[in-house]
């Protein structure tokens, strides 16, 4: 992960957890979550809206980053689904069921990481749109029927549950509890993965990497030129 990607991820991480804490505290004002915030509804509302603004700003910047930055466009290309992903699903299932002794060999991103990324984008758009409807109900009620607010509230709540479960059950396993990265995958902090993780989880990308300059063989004309110079020197 580059410096820009790590910064985006960090802002996403902080705003997501703030939204989850304040959002469920607003939904359940008598819960222990509300107690963590001092039982103050004003604090919950203000905190939720500040975190939502940060999340929407990060989301907007990420869309710009994907469209205008060469690094961002490459990221999108690497996240696009391919036929290889279907083969990776097959190989993963065969290996997990002990039907094959060869572990799956992923590229820069596995099919699971691609699915998680596009789910995150979709979830952020849905949560942002429904959240804005709930944030400005009077304005929305002037142009849409009242039942649109009820639909937005239901979608916002259930998508929030889905997002929290996806982070705590799926994402946390792959970045914390997976034996290959335990106790933590530090790429979100320094942008790097271990050599072991590169070989096991990104084997296709490792195979496609060019050989270091010290290991590269000299071109034929360079060998000839060097031989001629040596002969002339003698």
Describe what you observe in this structure.
By secondary structure, the protein is mainly alpha-helical. The protein contains twelve helices and no strands. The chain is elongated. Helix 1 runs antiparallel to helix 3 and helix 6 packs antiparallel against helix 8. The longest helix has about 30 residues. The C terminus is likely disordered. Helices cover about 75% and strands about 0% of the residues. The chain has a domain of about 80 residues.
Please describe the biggest sheet, giving its number of strands, its sense, and whether it closes into a barrel. Answer: none
Distance between the termini: 52 Å
Q: What percent strand?
A: under 5%
How many helices does DSSP assign?
12
Query: What form results from the Cα inertia axes?
Result: elongated
Fraction in helix:
over 70%
Rg, Å, rounded: 25 Å
Query: Got a strand count?
Result: 0
Structural class: mainly alpha
Averaging pLDDT over every residue, what do you get? 88
The H-and-E topology, N to C, reads as HHHHHHHHHHHH
- Identify low-pLDDT runs: 215-234
- For this structure, the quaternary state is single chain
Quick description:
With 234 residues, the protein is mainly α.
